[in-house]
Amino acid sequence: MIERALILAVIAGLVAVITAVTRSWSASRVAGLRTQGRDRLWSALGETPDGRPSLVVFSTPSCTACRTVQHPAVEAVAARFGPALRVVRVDLARRPAAGKAFNVMTAPTTVVLAGDGRVGSFNHGFAPADRLSSQVSALGVAPASPR
């Protein structure tokens, strides 16, 4: 019985170490994006900053989560902030260079860019609407007033 407990403890420890290393590695990749020239990122998108914060949404045609949960979340955020927020959609199957420039590892991935083009927030995997809204609000953008 003690052997089993010891084995489980070792496995749990390995999982914790692997998780910590993966999170650290991911954070360093995002930090690298923040220090790179934003012109390179915008060039990869084929766009230029226009003074508004931007929500960049990376997806693929075969990504079920992109269609079923991320797209509705992005639409909700776009509706909440209206024209104060720019939404840029990137199909990774058609534009893999854009994904590479942003260090995208999975679809969906969302990136919130400040009005000056710098990286504000980075989300690997699904990001719910409330998280995206908080990230946009953190840049000083107020929700659009209801009509």
Q: How does this structure look, described?
A:
The chain folds into two domains: 1-35; 37-137, Glutaredoxin (3-Layer(aba) Sandwich). Helices cover 51% and strands 16% of the residues. It is built from five helices and four strands. Strands 2-1-3-4 form a four-stranded mixed β-sheet. Strand 1, helix 3 (64-81) and strand 2 form a beta-alpha-beta unit. Helix 3 (64-81) packs across helix 5 (129-137). The longest helix is centred in the first third of the chain and has 34 residues, at 2-35. The radius of gyration is 18 Å and the shape is elongated. The model has no long low-confidence stretch (mean pLDDT 87).
Strand order of the largest sheet: 2-1-3-4
Order of helices and strands: HHEHEHEEH
> Residue-averaged pLDDT, rounded?
87
Structural class: alpha+beta
- Gyration radius, rounded: 18 Å
- Counted up, domains total 2
Contiguous runs where pLDDT drops below 50 for at least 5 residues: none
- The CATH architecture of the largest domain can be named as 3-Layer(aba) Sandwich
Give the CA-CA distance, first to last residue.
66 Å
Q: Please report the first level of CATH classification, the CATH class of the largest domain.
A: Alpha Beta
- How many helices? The count is 5
